[in-house]
Amino acid sequence: MKQWIKCKFGCHEYEIYKEEIVKNIYDKEIGIAIVSRCKYCGDITIDIIPKIQN
Q1: Over the chain (54 residues), what is each successive 10-residue block's mean pLDDT?
Q2: What is the pTM of this model?
Q3: Residue 27 needs a FRET pair 20 to 30 A away by CA distance; which of 2, 6, 16, 48 works?
Q4: Calpha distance 29→51 (Å, rounded)
């Protein structure tokens, strides 16, 4: 199946574009934001992974 057809139906093939540290207003780390991009159409998604608090 051609890649543009897969992308049209939401079956993207993502690769990690970059990772960023997420901070609150007090400049404390609260998690990591992972930015992913589709290899073929360029669709971008952002997943935020919270840091586990003690």
Answers
A1: 76 91 94 93 92 77
A2: 0.75
A3: 16
A4: 8
